[in-house]
Design a protein that fits this description.
about 180 residues; seven-stranded antiparallel sheet
Amino acid sequence: MTQLIGCHKIATNRLHQSVDEEHPMITTTDYRTSVRVNASADVVFDAVTTVDALAAWWSPVTGSGKAGGDLRFPMVDDQPPLLIHVDETSRPTTVRWTVVECTFMEDWVGTRPTFMITPLDGDACELTFEHLGLNDELECKDMCSRSWNHFVRTSLRELAEGGPGAPNRSPRDLARRAAEERA
């Protein structure tokens, strides 16, 4: 209990300290996007918890998308797979992951991708994806944000709506990357 009170005092003191020009307060923003999906919340939930659907919109994967499971995504040739632990799956509204291993993007270790699904009228929902820890302090924020925009706002949405996904290294994904390099 004493340790918690001590941490609270330190945090409160830091919060109340005045900010001067020599020591500006740094504010970072985690990546976040929302998209309306013309599919039920259950369909979107399945798209982010089943290996077949994950492979169809993001990347080939093995493992289990259930709470307590681990997912392994071989994202980069000649690198160990991205290892994600599934922290929570609450049908049909919430899926929370933690990145456990990522040799090709070490800044991702400890970050927490989160899918929040809100049922809407009819057979639609709003998907809010937040990658907690993917913020302005990370060198990869811009590139990763563009990729998440593609995978969540386009690939996942299209797959959930009954179309084809555009996963990692698919012709559409490679075309998107080439266009970004030219821009």
